[in-house]
Write a structure and sequence with these properties.
By secondary structure, the protein is an alpha+beta fold. The protein has helices spanning 14-22, 24-28, 116-144, and strands at 2-10, 34-39, 44-53, 56-70, 73-80, 85-95, 101-111.
Length: 145
């Protein structure tokens, strides 16, 4: 199972960051390789992005289903629509002991089916930098606004 976890300290008001993570359309466009997204309803959306899997590049389509959403946390499941890839993840805001704010991204993905033996090692190399890049882009975007 491929897992990415990344935290970034951000100099911003906590409320502004909370508002940002609740608006999935704002951070969907920041996914590395973003092609487009579609908001299905209040909790579900489809992401389409160009995945760079080493020697293979392809459009990947996943459905993000929000399981839980609070002011400081969004927890979701991912279901592969173009490929047999499933996973889950979250974005969470934590206040450090020194009063600074940290945005933490977490994502786990796993391939199934007959290509899983080939895809899971590729996902192991793909998911951690994806999470890091997305959290970094989210931090830049929220500070600029």
């Amino acid at each position: 199972m491929a897992t990415g976890y990344y935290g970034k300290d951000i100099s911003i008001q906590k409320e502004k960051l909370e508002e940002f993570i609740q608006n999935r359309e704002q951070w969907a466009v920041l996914i590395p390789g973003y092609l487009h997204h579609e908001l299905l309803n209040e909790k579900d959306m489809i992401w389409v992005f160009q995945g760079d899997f080493g020697i293979i590049q392809k459009a990947v389509k996943v459905e993000l289903k929000v399981k839980k959403s609070t002011s400081h946390q969004v927890i979701f499941d991912l279901e592969g629509l173009s490929d047999p890839i499933d996973g889950d993840g979250s974005f969470e805001i934590k206040q450090n002991q020194d009063g600074s704010i940290q945005l933490i991204g977490n994502l786990t993905m796993k391939a199934s089916g007959f290509l899983s033996a080939m895809m899971n090692p590729v996902l192991n190399n793909f998911v951690p930098p994806l999470v890091e890049q997305l959290v970094e882009e989210m931090a830049v975007k929220v500070v600029k606004e």
